[in-house]
Amino acid sequence: MNVTTQTDVKALTLTTTAELSASIERAWQLVSDPRKLERWWGPPEWPATFVRFGFEPEGRAHYYMQGPDGERMHGWWRFVSITAPRELIIEDGFADDQGEPSGDLGVTTANIIFEPIAAGTRVTIVSGFESAEQLEEMAKMGMEDGMRLALGQMQQILDES
Q1: Which CATH number is 3-160's, of 3.40.50.1980, 3.40.50.2000, 3.30.530.20, 3.20.20.70?
Q2: Among 101, 99, 128, which residue's Cα sits nearest to residue 113?
Q3: Which of 124, 97, 99, 105 is nearest to 24 (CA)?
Q4: Which of 70, 5, 42 has the alpha carbon at shortest distance from 153?
Q5: Contacts of 90 (CB under 8 A, 6+ apart)
Q6: With the C-alpha atoms ordered 141, 92, 1, 30, is the resulting torsion angle positive or negative?
Q7: Where are the alpha helices (DSSP H) in 33-153?
Q8: What is the pLDDT of residues 45-76, one digit of tens each?
Q9: What 8-state DSSP symbol labels residue 40?
């Protein structure tokens, strides 16, 4: 599976794209089903677990990613807009252990777009940042490689279901 990333410092975005051999409805399950979502949201060595998942406009999610040494990094989502099965817009940030925003590194916005293509579905995630400094800090943390690795897990999940 081909996964590409592109950083646009002027636009303050990181765009990650993957092409999946599955219908748009099946691909949508990768964001609407928390058990499927947690299998790809995060690189393979930092799998996610969704503790709360209020999948509705203005709903909230709380998750953590656990590293190979047992360290946990918590995050939160706010579902800004859900247009099944085409588009999901979320706000995302770091959280404390209870899933409350910590304020660390600010808030990012992710626009997750599903479009039918001849081979199945193209998934594009446009991550938007508040500032060049935030984008730079997230890049230093390995966000681009992390997104590429995360989306690289999607096809296997679809092949198994």
Answers
A1: 3.30.530.20
A2: 128
A3: 124
A4: 42
A5: 77, 78, 79, 80, 109, 110, 112
A6: positive
A7: 34-37, 132-140, 143-151
A8: 999 999 999 999 999 999 999 999 999 999 99
A9: T
Q: Tokens 């940030």 correspond to what residue?
A: 93
The domain ranges of the chain are 3-160
Residue 150: exposed, middle, or buried by beta-carbon count in 10 A (0-12, 13-18, 19+)?
Answer: buried
Q: Which residues pair with 14 in a beta bridge?
A: 7, 127
Can you read off the two tokens belonging to residue 23? 């219908």
CA-CA-CA-CA dihedral for 64, 108, 25, 115, to nearest 10: -150
C-alpha to C-alpha distances, 128 to 28, 94, 111, 134, nearest whole angstrom: 21, 15, 8, 10
User: What is the C-alpha to C-alpha distance for residues 58 and 54, in angstroms, rounded to an integer?
Assistant: 8
Query: What's the pTM?
Result: 0.94
